[in-house]
Design brief:
2 helices, 2 domains
Length: about 200
């Protein structure tokens, strides 16, 4: 009876997903835990929230650390029902990674030192219940984590995008000066003009 109550009280450990972005930011390596499933589909989330099939490469299905057999399907892979760790590579589009799950899980995204996520004008991290760790060691990576999230999104940027942002800002500052300067000079000259004699 005590054992039964203990099992009911203790929370079930959540599944996890880990994504490591490559040094050049063009692909990411995923390690996704699967529980009591017999298939897995590879897809990305569209603008309207729809699931769009995508291609994955270097696929490995691990059962207790050993390779397990699987078959490729039109949308992903199929295998014998059970608990696995799925490892695969996927390309990154526009410096952004988005993942949506059937149920909440713990997720981690590891971003290499060549990219940044601290400027809100260039970076996007969602949902807002994330935590960030930055390691200033030999790897110098940023780690973004969520607990029990059903959807994650990370958009990162590089130094070229920072330069483009500053160039864009400077351009509009120059435009503003060009447009406002004649108005300012006109008003200033009127203010300095001596009053006419009656």
């Amino acid at each position: 009876m005590i054992l039964l109550l203990t099992c009911l009280i203790l929370p079930v450990s959540s599944l996890s997903a880990r994504y490591v972005i490559s040094e050049d930011g063009t692909i990411y390596r995923a390690e996704v835990e699967i529980a009591e499933q017999d298939h897995y589909n590879f897809y990305e989330v569209g603008i309207l929230g729809e699931r769009i099939p995508v291609t994955a490469s270097n696929i490995s299905l691990l059962y207790n650390g050993k390779e397990a057999p699987f078959e490729k399907t039109r949308e992903g892979i199929s295998f014998q029902k059970g608990n696995y760790t799925l490892v695969y590579d996927r390309p990154v589009k526009t410096n952004q990674i988005q993942e949506q799950y059937d149920s909440p899980r713990t997720s981690t995204v590891i971003i290499p030192s060549a990219f940044r996520i601290d400027n809100p004008l260039l970076a996007v991290i969602s949902p807002s219940s994330y935590s960030i760790q930055q390691f200033n060691n030999t790897t110098n990576v940023s780690v973004v984590s969520w607990k029990e999230s059903q959807f994650i999104q990370v958009k990162y940027y590089d130094s070229k995008q920072v330069q483009a942002l500053w160039a864009f800002a400077q351009f509009w500052i120059i435009i503003a000066i060009v447009l406002l300067l004649p108005y300012y000079l006109t008003n200033s000259s009127r203010g300095l003009k001596p009053p006419e004699n009656e």
